[in-house]
Amino acid sequence: METITIKDIARALNLSTSTVSRALRNSYEINTETKKLVLEYAEKMNYRPNPIALSLRDSKSKSIGVILPEIANNFFSQLINGIESIAYNMGYHVVIFQSHESYEREVANTNYLVSRKVDGLLVSLSSLTTDISHFEELLDKGLPIVFFDRVPKKVETHKIVADNFGGSYQATEHLIKTGKRKIAHITSPIYLSITMERLAGYKKALEDNGIPFDESYVKYCHHGGMVVSENEAAVQELLDMDEVPDAIFTASDRITTGCLSVLHRKHIRIPDEIAIVGFTNIGVAELLNPPLTAVVQPAMDMGNQATELLIKLIEHPKKPTIFESRSLKTSLIIRESTAGKIVNVS
After folding, report:
1. Could you give all domains of the chain from N- to C-terminal order, each with its CATH number?
2. Model confidence over 86-96: pLDDT tens digits?
3. CA distance 42 to 20
């Protein structure tokens, strides 16, 4: 099928090419009726802007760089779908790099994307990133960057996150309502934004229900779940405690699956001996044995909103006076890994 052009649209609607071009850019110079006519016809004919022509006209590459920890993760793959759906419809290509939880790879990926003259970056920090000067320098030079999921606290730009505190609070409170009192938490490095927020929600739920916080029940996986031996060691440390937890709240997909693997190998009955809740978007949660109770993040919507904000920065280069930090609501899906009679906790 041949690609439709602005000239084709103009010919079909008996308009000038400049009028069609301005209508597609939502220019104030074009009246509402003409814009509606052009946009509806363009959608009907599956018109897509020519990125090469746009880059020549605007001196832009019409490409967006994305740096995230890994693609083989259901949360990030859903998020990428959200990014690409918005970018494609607005005439941008997406170039994706994985840091694999490595600070050095994150820096190398950033340098390469900048050398390829991407128009902006969407970034979720690696679990080993404590120095963000490579991003601060780019922001100072005017490169648009939007952070999502794992975000730096002290950088002035748009940020999109899930409600990590609320999701963790809800998950922990659910475990308490099923009668659990010795609730452990396995999470990522303490300096990550998601770790601090999820830990805070967990601690607040314990406090509100009269359960003392015990630091020994919190285990940190410094590679964010990427290293299997690290995940397994964290679970084993909990199983070796004098008072073994009766529930575990895990903070990511890989930590969750690693935890389940160890418990199954040890023939520990879930949820009778230890209940499990994951902060995860794992696609097969309901197919696991037992089906996993999980906090689910609105990954697709996070990708949509982050991309919309980035493209707005790219196409309106004047620095905004106020940057947005959006926190999107999570949901708790209750399945058999925490099944039990709901009890009132005084």
Report:
1. 6-47 (no CATH), 56-162+299-329 (3.40.50.2300), 164-298+332-338 (3.40.50.2300)
2. 999 888 999 99
3. 10
